[in-house]
UniProtKB/TrEMBL annotation:
Residues 1-21 form the signal peptide. The keyword Endoplasmic reticulum does not apply. Residues 223-245 are annotated as: Disordered. Keywords: Signal. This is Tli3-like domain-containing protein. Residues 52-174 form the Tli3-like domain. Coiled coil: none annotated. Pfam families: Tli3 (PF24316). The keyword Signal applies. It comes from the Bacteria.
C-alpha cells in the first residue's frame, strides 16, 4: 500500500502543479514523464493527435487558399495555411480551430494579407487568458502574432463577440458591445514586413472607431467563398482509433 502511494505521488503532484498554474500543456510539448503521469491519473489530457487522421478543410477562402486541420484527434491538432498556387503549406498553430467562435473574413483581393484568429479553451488562472490572431503580409509564407483580447476567464465563449477581417488596407477587429448592439472597431495597418507589436514606420498608425460611425465598413468585407466561421467534424477519426467511451 505504501509503495503504491509513493508511485502515485509524483503524478499527483504534476497534475496539481499544472492545474494550479491554470495551464493546458500541448500533447506534443509534454515530456515522457508527463505523458505517463497523465496516463496513470486518467483522462485529464484526452487528445492524442494522429497523423493518419483525414485532412479537414476548416476554412476556405477560395479555390486555392484554405486552412486545414491535420495530425488531430477530435478537432484538436495542427492547423495549416495553404495556397496551392503559391506552393504554401505552413503550420500556424496547434489547437482546436473552432475554439474561436467569432466571425472570420479574409477579403484582400491581392491575397497578400491574411489573418487567422485563435482562442484558448482552458483554465486561465487569476488574470484570465489572452487570445491571439496570426497575420501575414506576404500571402501566408510567414506569420506574426498579436493579441486581440486579454484578461478573459471564458476566452472561447467570449471570442463569439468578435469579427476579425483582413482587407487590403489592414486588419479590422470588430468587438460587439454588451449593450446597444454597436461594435467597437480597431484597425491595424498592414504593409510588407510590418510588425504590429513594434513601433510603426513614420506616418503609419492604428485607428479606432464605432462601427455605427462608419456603417459601410463591415458589410463591404466578404470572404470569396462566403465562409465566415471555422468548421470541424469531430467525428472524423483515423481508422486505427476507436471512439472513446
Amino acid at each position: 500500500m505504501a509503495m503504491g502511494m509513493k508511485r502515485l505521488a509524483p503524478a499527483s503532484l504534476l497534475i496539481a502543479a499544472l492545474t494550479l498554474a491554470g495551464c493546458q500543456t500541448d500533447y506534443e510539448d509534454m515530456t515522457a514523464a508527463q505523458h505517463a503521469a497523465y496516463s496513470r491519473t486518467g483522462n485529464l489530457y484526452t487528445y492524442k493527435p494522429d497523423p493518419n487522421a483525414p485532412v479537414q478543410v476548416t476554412y476556405r477562402i477560395d479555390e486555392h487558399r484554405f486552412v486545414t486541420l491535420e495530425n488531430y484527434d477530435r478537432c484538436y491538432g495542427d492547423n495549416y495555411y495553404n495556397d496551392t498556387q503559391r506552393g504554401i503549406h505552413e503550420k500556424i498553430w496547434t489547437g482546436e480551430p473552432t475554439d474561436y467562435r467569432g466571425r472570420l473574413v479574409i477579403a484582400d483581393p491581392s491575397g497578400m494579407n491574411v489573418v487567422l484568429p485563435t482562442a484558448r479553451n482552458s483554465l486561465c488562472g487569476d488574470r484570465g487568458c489572452t487570445n491571439l490572431f496570426a497575420y501575414s503580409t506576404d500571402s501566408g509564407r510567414t506569420f506574426r502574432w498579436l493579441d486581440y483580447m486579454k484578461y478573459s476567464f471564458r476566452p472561447s465563449e467570449d471570442s463569439e463577440k468578435f469579427t476579425i477581417a483582413a482587407a487590403n488596407d489592414g486588419i479590422y477587429v470588430f468587438q460587439k458591445r454588451v449593450y446597444g448592439g454597436d461594435y467597437t472597431v480597431s484597425k491595424y495597418p498592414l504593409m510588407s514586413g510590418i510588425d504590429l507589436s513594434r513601433p510603426y514606420p513614420a506616418g503609419v498608425h492604428d485607428e479606432s472607431f464605432m462601427a455605427s460611425k462608419r456603417p459601410d465598413v463591415l458589410p463591404s468585407l466578404h470572404t470569396p467563398s462566403g465562409q465566415d466561421h471555422y468548421t470541424c467534424d469531430a467525428s472524423l477519426r483515423a481508422p486505427n482509433l476507436t471512439t472513446p467511451q
